[in-house]
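Q: What changes when calcium ion is included in the input?
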Amino acid sequence: TVTVLVGAPELGFAAVPKSLADVVAVPAGYTVSVLYRLGDPIASSLAPYGNNGTDGDFARRAGDHHDGMSYFGLQASGSAPDAANSTRGLLVLNHENITQAYLHANGPTSVAGVRPEAEALKEIEAHGVSVIEVTRGSNGGWSYAQGSAFNRRITPNTLMAFHGPARGDASLRTAYSADGTAGRGTINNCANGSTPWHSYLTNEENWAGYFRRNAGDAAIRAAAGRAAQNASLARYGIAEGRTGNYGWTTVTPAAADSTIFRRWNATASAGLPADGTGDFRNEPFQFGWVVEIDPFDPASTPRKRTALGRMNHEGCQIGRTVAGVRPAFYMGDDAQNEYIYKFVSQQPWAAADANRPDRLAVGDKYLDTGTLYVARFDASGEGQWLPLVFGQGPLTPANGFTSQADVLIHTRLAADALGATPMDRPEWTAVNPVTGEMYCTLTNNSNRAVTPASGSQRRVDAANPRAYLDPRSDGRSPTRGNANGHVVRLREAGDTSEATSFTWDIYAFGAGSDLDPAGINLSGLDATNDFSSPDGLWFGLPSNPSGQVTPLMWMQTDDGAFTDQTNCMMLAAIPGIVGDGKAQTVTSTLDGQTATVTTRAGRAPGATLRRFLVGPKECEITGIHSTPDGRSLFVNIQHPGENGNPANITSNWPANQTAAAPGQRPRSSTIVITRDDGGVVGL
Ligand code: FEO
Ligand code: CA
Ligand code: CA
Ligand code: CA
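A: The predicted holo structure follows.
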């Protein structure tokens, strides 16, 4: 039970200034420690990372591009969960992508268009998920246990099982899994979630980019009676002519299983079976899912939860759980003008399930049956959750939908048919643990327009009300559309996760504090809290020294329009409640045209939103979790120095965090932030 005392809680630190320095900066009285870096070994026999491009063995080292992350408390001595343990736990984190240049001695190579097998294998294995055991020592410092039996790398080659309505569907059949029930690995894992039954949810975001699709594929599919697949592949961004990220399909493999490279070529072969079991034409349909991992069982097979739909899954945050009430999971589909979703389990929550040792079976109970909804935001300040249920509304054979599996595999097409609201790139979702309100970062959208000029642009509306030009002082072209992003939030009708309608408002609009207060800086941000391109978002629930429990929100940023003035950052907030603001008229001007809409703006955040951290050069701040006592905060620093290469190293972080380290290559890393007096971080 949670007790919230009367009296306004306050943030307990001085704001960190914007910065372009190559270091992680935090408020006075706090310390940053580097815990887990790209390449760090997670098996006892493995050598330290040389960080010079010669290292291999990434299936037993930390991957690259640390992203979403959860801490799971572990028994002090033992192997079962202990949700209250703040000194020993399992840290599970995503490795979303790679900075290819730094993984090799002199950057990536190819000979006559063919990538070397060893380079491609390294790049593949540097994606995925890490599970590591971490402990806080008697001196207060954190370390990971290199030889722990819990340590695990999940890579794009790890065996996965399909669960839920799409398991075994014809669209999931491949040369690897003739019955469409199994697959290999997960890729471009962005944000995360964790469940009350101690499992981890990793989310497949920009997976489409890894696939090659040759010209002529659409004709082969059409001739094979699979014309409908072409519309879906196009809707998910897999057009003919794509070569696939990093050129993995060009490898001429010596490996025993050559398909770990060939599988990224989704081109159908005319001479092979139309059902897709002879090649990898259906491989793209095996990606775009939420994947559940049991971090406490290193031998377990992760399960792709198809009931939660297929999209560019950013995160998956469970709402408040109430015994006897069906729980909800909130998700963003991160691409321009995509949608916000929630999945409501068919089964009501039973608290005893939190303690069951068969965690993935509990996942089967709550994540394999239920209803997926997509959000429509109305100008009235209300909104509707539209069900993606086969046979209901337009989701019928007359419109091309043949089953619930079909609706889920082609989630975006179903959501289009229902009239969902296109949003400014839905990133992370977070739920206020006290009020149950759901927040979603909308990071930015260059295709938000005053006068839409192309089919991919959308006009400003109540929930996405800004389109403008944001100049940059570093010589790059201005950013257009909703250049700085915003954070939308909603409150379920009746405050129940089962609701099919909600009210909404906008928590904060990103903006530089120097920008137009009437059209851009609508939240009145100042030098202590101006931000752009919100992305990572998470609520902790720490207590301050007087025992006051406070829902403390952390917000992280990704690139965007502000990197001429500052590196990416993390802010802390004690937000108000949905509806604490008022209707606000917004006039957008772009390309000489204007549009006026009325939005629902929350109260200006003022001193309740404050910058806590600024990262090193060219990084994104993404991934956050805390120990249950709120005294150790884990944060990921993704791709420092991402625009450089071995001949032009643009960041030396983290080697330079405490002393200059010229020549050192940068490494994505997990850091731990603690307060020097041992107190709760942020309050
Ligand atoms: Fe991987 Fe949408 O951020
Ligand atoms: Ca993100
Ligand atoms: Ca982003
Ligand atoms: Ca990134």
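Observations recorded in class: Residues 558, 620, 638-639 surround calcium ion (ligand 4) (CB under 6 Å).
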